[in-house]
What does this fold into?
Amino acid sequence: MIYDVIIIGGGPSGLMACNVFEQENINYLLLEKNEKLAKKLLISGGKRCNVTNNLSIDDFIASLNLKHKKFLYHALKDFGPTEIIDFFKGHGLNLVLEDQLKYFPETQKSSSVLEALTKDLDINRIKMNHGVKRIDQDNHVFSIHTAHEIFLTKHVVIATGSNSYPTTGSSGDGLEFARYLHVETIPFTPAETYIYSNEIVEKYKDLQGVSISQTKVRINGTNLSYTGGLLFTHFGLSGPVILHASEDIYQALLKDKVSISFSLIEQSRETLIQLLDQAKTNQMFIVKFLETITTKKLAQKMIDLSGIENRNMNEIAKKDINHIIENLTNFTVSIDKVQSRDLAFVNAGGISTKELDPKSMEVKHKPGLYFIGETVDLHGPIGGFNITIALSTGHMCAKHISYKLKS
It folds into this structure.
Protein backbone atom coordinates (compact mmCIF):
# COMPACT_ATOMS: atom_id res chain seq x y z
CA MET A 1 0.00 0.00 0.00
CA ILE A 2 1.13 3.53 -0.77
CA TYR A 3 -0.19 5.93 1.86
CA ASP A 4 -1.19 9.46 0.96
CA VAL A 5 0.92 10.71 3.85
CA ILE A 6 3.02 9.34 6.71
CA ILE A 7 3.70 11.40 9.82
CA ILE A 8 6.83 10.59 11.81
CA GLY A 9 6.48 11.61 15.44
CA GLY A 10 3.45 11.57 17.73
CA GLY A 11 3.91 14.86 19.56
CA PRO A 12 1.52 17.84 19.40
CA SER A 13 2.46 18.91 15.84
CA GLY A 14 2.14 15.39 14.44
CA LEU A 15 -1.12 14.73 16.26
CA MET A 16 -2.62 18.01 15.06
CA ALA A 17 -1.73 17.03 11.49
CA CYS A 18 -3.47 13.68 12.07
CA ASN A 19 -6.62 15.47 13.21
CA VAL A 20 -6.74 17.39 9.95
CA PHE A 21 -6.13 14.25 7.87
CA GLU A 22 -8.84 12.41 9.80
CA GLN A 23 -11.30 15.23 9.15
CA GLU A 24 -10.37 15.35 5.46
CA ASN A 25 -10.56 11.54 5.03
CA ILE A 26 -6.93 11.28 3.99
CA ASN A 27 -5.19 7.88 3.94
CA TYR A 28 -2.51 8.59 6.56
CA LEU A 29 -0.29 6.66 8.95
CA LEU A 30 1.46 7.91 12.11
CA LEU A 31 4.73 6.28 13.18
CA GLU A 32 5.82 6.82 16.79
CA LYS A 33 9.05 5.33 18.13
CA ASN A 34 7.94 5.31 21.79
CA GLU A 35 5.47 3.01 23.52
CA LYS A 36 3.15 5.98 24.09
CA LEU A 37 2.32 9.26 22.34
CA ALA A 38 3.47 12.77 23.27
CA LYS A 39 5.74 11.87 26.19
CA LYS A 40 7.30 15.33 26.26
CA LEU A 41 3.92 17.06 26.17
CA LEU A 42 2.81 14.97 29.16
CA ILE A 43 5.58 16.41 31.36
CA SER A 44 5.36 19.99 30.09
CA GLY A 45 4.32 22.81 32.39
CA GLY A 46 4.80 20.67 35.48
CA LYS A 47 2.44 18.11 33.92
CA ARG A 48 -0.19 20.84 33.51
CA CYS A 49 0.74 21.85 29.92
CA ASN A 50 0.56 25.53 28.98
CA VAL A 51 -1.16 25.00 25.63
CA THR A 52 -1.24 28.52 24.21
CA ASN A 53 -1.59 32.17 25.20
CA ASN A 54 -3.91 35.11 24.59
CA LEU A 55 -1.62 37.24 22.41
CA SER A 56 -2.59 38.63 19.04
CA ILE A 57 -0.63 37.30 16.06
CA ASP A 58 1.46 40.48 15.88
CA ASP A 59 2.26 40.44 19.60
CA PHE A 60 2.99 36.71 19.50
CA ILE A 61 5.52 37.17 16.70
CA ALA A 62 7.04 40.26 18.34
CA SER A 63 7.71 38.21 21.49
CA LEU A 64 9.94 35.72 19.66
CA ASN A 65 13.72 35.88 19.90
CA LEU A 66 14.19 35.00 16.21
CA LYS A 67 15.56 36.95 13.26
CA HIS A 68 13.17 35.07 10.97
CA LYS A 69 10.15 35.37 13.28
CA LYS A 70 7.82 36.58 10.48
CA PHE A 71 8.11 33.12 8.90
CA LEU A 72 5.35 32.07 11.32
CA TYR A 73 2.82 34.64 10.20
CA HIS A 74 0.94 32.37 7.77
CA ALA A 75 0.77 29.43 10.19
CA LEU A 76 -0.53 31.60 13.03
CA LYS A 77 -3.01 33.37 10.79
CA ASP A 78 -4.33 29.99 9.66
CA PHE A 79 -4.41 28.43 13.13
CA GLY A 80 -3.32 30.66 16.00
CA PRO A 81 -4.21 30.88 19.71
CA THR A 82 -7.90 31.62 19.09
CA GLU A 83 -8.32 28.62 16.79
CA ILE A 84 -6.38 26.40 19.18
CA ILE A 85 -8.70 27.32 22.06
CA ASP A 86 -11.72 26.57 19.83
CA PHE A 87 -10.21 23.24 18.74
CA PHE A 88 -9.82 21.98 22.28
CA LYS A 89 -13.25 23.23 23.28
CA GLY A 90 -14.68 21.32 20.33
CA HIS A 91 -12.87 18.23 21.58
CA GLY A 92 -14.30 18.44 25.08
CA LEU A 93 -11.54 20.39 26.83
CA ASN A 94 -11.88 23.98 28.00
CA LEU A 95 -8.71 26.02 28.43
CA VAL A 96 -8.51 28.52 31.30
CA LEU A 97 -6.47 31.73 31.40
CA GLU A 98 -3.79 32.26 34.06
CA ASP A 99 -1.66 35.35 34.74
CA GLN A 100 -3.62 37.15 31.99
CA LEU A 101 -1.46 35.33 29.43
CA LYS A 102 -1.23 31.53 29.63
CA TYR A 103 -3.93 28.99 28.79
CA PHE A 104 -3.95 25.68 30.68
CA PRO A 105 -6.47 22.81 30.52
CA GLU A 106 -9.24 23.30 33.06
CA THR A 107 -8.42 19.85 34.45
CA GLN A 108 -4.85 21.08 35.19
CA LYS A 109 -3.62 17.85 33.58
CA SER A 110 -1.46 17.56 30.47
CA SER A 111 -2.98 14.12 29.92
CA SER A 112 -6.28 15.89 29.14
CA VAL A 113 -4.55 17.73 26.28
CA LEU A 114 -3.35 14.43 24.83
CA GLU A 115 -6.82 12.91 25.23
CA ALA A 116 -8.33 15.81 23.26
CA LEU A 117 -5.70 15.52 20.52
CA THR A 118 -6.35 11.79 20.10
CA LYS A 119 -10.11 11.76 20.70
CA ASP A 120 -11.10 11.62 17.02
CA LEU A 121 -8.15 9.62 15.70
CA ASP A 122 -8.37 6.07 14.34
CA ILE A 123 -5.98 4.05 16.52
CA ASN A 124 -5.44 1.65 13.63
CA ARG A 125 -3.64 4.45 11.82
CA ILE A 126 -1.09 4.80 14.64
CA LYS A 127 1.85 2.42 14.99
CA MET A 128 3.73 2.61 18.28
CA ASN A 129 7.30 1.38 18.79
CA HIS A 130 8.06 2.13 15.15
CA GLY A 131 11.26 4.15 15.15
CA VAL A 132 12.26 5.29 11.67
CA LYS A 133 15.80 4.40 10.61
CA ARG A 134 15.97 5.90 7.13
CA ILE A 135 13.92 7.77 4.53
CA ASP A 136 14.56 7.24 0.82
CA GLN A 137 12.89 8.81 -2.19
CA ASP A 138 12.38 7.22 -5.61
CA ASN A 139 10.70 9.58 -8.04
CA HIS A 140 7.57 10.77 -6.21
CA VAL A 141 7.39 7.99 -3.61
CA PHE A 142 9.11 7.98 -0.22
CA SER A 143 10.07 4.73 1.49
CA ILE A 144 10.10 4.88 5.29
CA HIS A 145 12.35 2.24 6.86
CA THR A 146 11.71 1.06 10.41
CA ALA A 147 13.46 -1.83 12.16
CA HIS A 148 10.96 -4.37 10.84
CA GLU A 149 8.95 -2.81 8.01
CA ILE A 150 9.12 -0.47 5.04
CA PHE A 151 6.20 1.90 4.39
CA LEU A 152 5.55 3.78 1.15
CA THR A 153 3.97 7.20 0.88
CA LYS A 154 3.48 10.17 -1.46
CA HIS A 155 4.08 12.68 1.32
CA VAL A 156 6.10 12.51 4.52
CA VAL A 157 5.73 14.87 7.48
CA ILE A 158 8.63 14.87 9.95
CA ALA A 159 7.54 15.92 13.45
CA THR A 160 10.27 14.38 15.58
CA GLY A 161 10.92 17.36 17.85
CA SER A 162 14.24 18.88 18.93
CA ASN A 163 17.00 17.51 21.17
CA SER A 164 15.42 18.75 24.39
CA TYR A 165 14.71 15.96 26.91
CA PRO A 166 15.82 13.08 24.63
CA THR A 167 14.51 10.50 27.13
CA THR A 168 11.03 11.44 25.87
CA GLY A 169 12.06 10.47 22.34
CA SER A 170 13.07 13.98 21.33
CA SER A 171 16.58 12.97 20.29
CA GLY A 172 17.20 14.99 17.13
CA ASP A 173 16.18 12.33 14.60
CA GLY A 174 14.70 14.94 12.28
CA LEU A 175 18.08 16.53 11.62
CA GLU A 176 19.56 13.16 10.70
CA PHE A 177 16.76 12.54 8.20
CA ALA A 178 17.20 16.05 6.81
CA ARG A 179 20.93 15.72 6.30
CA TYR A 180 20.44 12.38 4.52
CA LEU A 181 17.88 14.04 2.24
CA HIS A 182 20.17 17.07 1.63
CA VAL A 183 18.08 19.57 3.57
CA GLU A 184 19.98 22.36 5.36
CA THR A 185 19.99 22.13 9.15
CA ILE A 186 21.13 24.25 12.08
CA PRO A 187 22.53 22.30 15.07
CA PHE A 188 20.32 22.21 18.14
CA THR A 189 21.55 24.41 20.99
CA PRO A 190 20.07 25.26 24.40
CA ALA A 191 17.39 27.94 24.66
CA GLU A 192 14.97 28.79 27.45
CA THR A 193 17.07 27.38 30.26
CA TYR A 194 19.09 28.13 33.41
CA ILE A 195 22.55 29.65 33.61
CA TYR A 196 25.43 28.72 35.91
CA SER A 197 27.71 31.13 37.75
CA ASN A 198 30.57 30.11 40.03
CA GLU A 199 30.66 33.72 41.26
CA ILE A 200 27.12 33.41 42.59
CA VAL A 201 27.87 30.02 44.15
CA GLU A 202 31.01 31.28 45.89
CA LYS A 203 30.33 34.96 46.56
CA TYR A 204 26.55 35.31 46.64
CA LYS A 205 25.35 31.93 47.93
CA ASP A 206 23.45 33.74 50.71
CA LEU A 207 21.17 35.22 48.03
CA GLN A 208 19.81 31.79 47.09
CA GLY A 209 16.02 32.02 46.83
CA VAL A 210 15.95 35.80 46.40
CA SER A 211 13.67 36.80 43.54
CA ILE A 212 13.36 40.06 41.62
CA SER A 213 9.84 40.46 40.25
CA GLN A 214 10.82 42.69 37.32
CA THR A 215 14.25 43.67 36.07
CA LYS A 216 16.20 44.30 32.87
CA VAL A 217 19.08 41.93 32.16
CA ARG A 218 21.87 43.16 29.89
CA ILE A 219 24.54 40.98 28.29
CA ASN A 220 27.62 43.16 28.74
CA GLY A 221 29.55 44.00 25.59
CA THR A 222 26.40 43.67 23.45
CA ASN A 223 23.25 45.70 22.85
CA LEU A 224 21.05 42.81 23.99
CA SER A 225 18.67 43.21 26.92
CA TYR A 226 15.63 41.38 28.29
CA THR A 227 12.94 42.20 30.84
CA GLY A 228 11.20 39.92 33.34
CA GLY A 229 11.46 38.14 36.67
CA LEU A 230 14.75 36.72 38.01
CA LEU A 231 15.67 34.20 40.70
CA PHE A 232 18.97 33.51 42.47
CA THR A 233 19.56 29.75 42.76
CA HIS A 234 22.15 27.45 44.34
CA PHE A 235 23.89 27.12 40.95
CA GLY A 236 23.38 30.53 39.36
CA LEU A 237 20.28 32.24 37.99
CA SER A 238 16.83 31.31 36.75
CA GLY A 239 13.47 32.98 36.20
CA PRO A 240 11.63 34.06 33.02
CA VAL A 241 14.12 36.79 32.04
CA ILE A 242 17.08 34.41 32.38
CA LEU A 243 15.35 31.69 30.38
CA HIS A 244 14.65 34.18 27.61
CA ALA A 245 18.24 35.48 27.59
CA SER A 246 19.92 32.07 27.82
CA GLU A 247 19.99 31.43 24.08
CA ASP A 248 22.01 34.58 23.42
CA ILE A 249 24.17 34.02 26.51
CA TYR A 250 25.05 30.58 25.13
CA GLN A 251 26.09 32.07 21.78
CA ALA A 252 28.13 34.79 23.50
CA LEU A 253 29.94 32.17 25.61
CA LEU A 254 31.11 30.46 22.42
CA LYS A 255 33.12 33.59 21.60
CA ASP A 256 34.38 34.94 24.92
CA LYS A 257 33.80 35.28 28.65
CA VAL A 258 30.36 36.63 29.53
CA SER A 259 28.97 38.78 32.32
CA ILE A 260 25.47 40.14 32.74
CA SER A 261 24.15 43.13 34.66
CA PHE A 262 20.72 43.83 36.13
CA SER A 263 18.97 45.96 38.72
CA LEU A 264 18.06 44.53 42.11
CA ILE A 265 15.29 47.07 42.65
CA GLU A 266 12.28 48.31 40.73
CA GLN A 267 13.27 51.99 41.01
CA SER A 268 15.47 53.67 38.41
CA ARG A 269 18.92 54.99 39.30
CA GLU A 270 17.59 58.56 39.28
CA THR A 271 14.67 57.69 41.58
CA LEU A 272 17.02 55.82 43.93
CA ILE A 273 19.25 58.90 44.26
CA GLN A 274 16.21 61.04 45.09
CA LEU A 275 15.07 58.54 47.73
CA LEU A 276 18.57 58.49 49.22
CA ASP A 277 18.55 62.28 49.51
CA GLN A 278 15.20 62.19 51.28
CA ALA A 279 16.46 59.48 53.62
CA LYS A 280 19.49 61.60 54.49
CA THR A 281 17.23 64.53 55.30
CA ASN A 282 15.21 62.24 57.58
CA GLN A 283 18.45 60.94 59.16
CA MET A 284 17.55 57.33 58.45
CA PHE A 285 19.96 54.51 59.15
CA ILE A 286 21.22 52.86 55.94
CA VAL A 287 19.81 49.37 56.60
CA LYS A 288 16.37 50.74 57.47
CA PHE A 289 16.38 52.72 54.23
CA LEU A 290 17.49 49.75 52.12
CA GLU A 291 14.75 47.59 53.60
CA THR A 292 12.17 50.09 52.29
CA ILE A 293 13.24 49.43 48.69
CA THR A 294 14.28 45.77 48.79
CA THR A 295 14.30 42.65 50.98
CA LYS A 296 16.09 42.29 54.32
CA LYS A 297 18.43 39.73 52.78
CA LEU A 298 19.41 42.02 49.91
CA ALA A 299 19.68 45.04 52.21
CA GLN A 300 22.19 43.21 54.41
CA LYS A 301 24.09 41.98 51.35
CA MET A 302 24.49 45.53 50.08
CA ILE A 303 25.98 46.54 53.45
CA ASP A 304 28.34 43.55 53.43
CA LEU A 305 29.52 44.26 49.87
CA SER A 306 30.15 47.92 50.70
CA GLY A 307 32.08 47.06 53.87
CA ILE A 308 30.24 49.63 55.99
CA GLU A 309 28.40 49.54 59.26
CA ASN A 310 24.72 50.27 59.81
CA ARG A 311 24.97 53.99 60.54
CA ASN A 312 23.03 57.20 60.01
CA MET A 313 23.22 57.94 56.31
CA ASN A 314 24.71 61.37 56.94
CA GLU A 315 27.72 59.62 58.45
CA ILE A 316 28.40 57.42 55.41
CA ALA A 317 31.01 58.49 52.84
CA LYS A 318 29.81 59.45 49.38
CA LYS A 319 31.96 56.75 47.75
CA ASP A 320 30.24 54.09 49.87
CA ILE A 321 26.80 55.42 48.93
CA ASN A 322 27.83 55.36 45.26
CA HIS A 323 29.00 51.77 45.68
CA ILE A 324 25.59 50.82 47.04
CA ILE A 325 23.84 52.64 44.18
CA GLU A 326 25.96 50.78 41.64
CA ASN A 327 25.29 47.38 43.20
CA LEU A 328 21.55 48.02 43.42
CA THR A 329 21.11 49.32 39.87
CA ASN A 330 23.91 47.58 37.96
CA PHE A 331 24.56 44.30 39.77
CA THR A 332 27.07 42.39 37.65
CA VAL A 333 27.93 38.67 37.70
CA SER A 334 30.08 36.43 35.51
CA ILE A 335 28.41 33.50 33.74
CA ASP A 336 30.25 30.21 33.33
CA LYS A 337 27.87 28.07 31.31
CA VAL A 338 24.32 27.49 30.14
CA GLN A 339 22.34 24.33 30.89
CA SER A 340 22.93 21.63 28.24
CA ARG A 341 20.65 21.35 25.23
CA ASP A 342 19.18 18.02 26.36
CA LEU A 343 18.01 19.52 29.66
CA ALA A 344 16.92 22.88 28.25
CA PHE A 345 13.17 23.44 28.10
CA VAL A 346 13.52 24.45 24.44
CA ASN A 347 16.19 24.13 21.76
CA ALA A 348 17.23 26.68 19.19
CA GLY A 349 18.16 25.27 15.80
CA GLY A 350 16.57 22.65 13.58
CA ILE A 351 15.59 22.68 9.92
CA SER A 352 16.54 26.02 8.37
CA THR A 353 13.42 28.01 7.52
CA LYS A 354 15.18 29.04 4.29
CA GLU A 355 14.49 25.50 3.09
CA LEU A 356 10.74 25.65 3.77
CA ASP A 357 7.70 27.28 2.20
CA PRO A 358 6.17 29.38 5.03
CA LYS A 359 2.68 28.70 3.63
CA SER A 360 2.98 24.91 3.82
CA MET A 361 6.17 23.81 5.68
CA GLU A 362 7.14 21.87 2.52
CA VAL A 363 10.82 21.65 1.53
CA LYS A 364 11.14 23.92 -1.49
CA HIS A 365 13.48 21.71 -3.50
CA LYS A 366 11.94 18.38 -2.46
CA PRO A 367 8.15 18.29 -3.04
CA GLY A 368 6.28 15.97 -0.73
CA LEU A 369 8.67 16.39 2.20
CA TYR A 370 7.55 18.50 5.18
CA PHE A 371 8.99 19.46 8.58
CA ILE A 372 6.83 20.82 11.43
CA GLY A 373 6.96 21.73 15.11
CA GLU A 374 10.17 21.80 17.14
CA THR A 375 12.07 19.98 14.38
CA VAL A 376 12.18 23.36 12.62
CA ASP A 377 14.33 26.33 13.71
CA LEU A 378 11.30 27.98 15.32
CA HIS A 379 10.90 28.51 19.04
CA GLY A 380 9.64 30.97 21.60
CA PRO A 381 9.81 31.76 25.32
CA ILE A 382 8.01 29.87 28.05
CA GLY A 383 4.34 30.81 27.98
CA GLY A 384 2.53 28.59 25.49
CA PHE A 385 4.57 29.74 22.51
CA ASN A 386 6.20 26.46 21.55
CA ILE A 387 3.12 24.24 21.71
CA THR A 388 1.25 26.91 19.75
CA ILE A 389 3.98 26.82 17.09
CA ALA A 390 3.77 23.02 16.99
CA LEU A 391 -0.01 22.98 16.64
CA SER A 392 -0.17 25.80 14.09
CA THR A 393 2.57 24.43 11.79
CA GLY A 394 1.08 20.93 12.01
CA HIS A 395 -2.37 22.23 11.10
CA MET A 396 -1.19 24.37 8.18
CA CYS A 397 0.99 21.61 6.77
CA ALA A 398 -1.85 19.05 6.89
CA LYS A 399 -4.32 21.48 5.29
CA HIS A 400 -1.86 22.06 2.45
CA ILE A 401 -1.34 18.33 1.82
CA SER A 402 -5.09 17.65 1.98
CA TYR A 403 -5.72 20.39 -0.58
CA LYS A 404 -3.03 18.97 -2.91
CA LEU A 405 -4.47 15.48 -2.70
CA LYS A 406 -7.98 16.67 -3.53
CA SER A 407 -7.02 19.06 -6.33
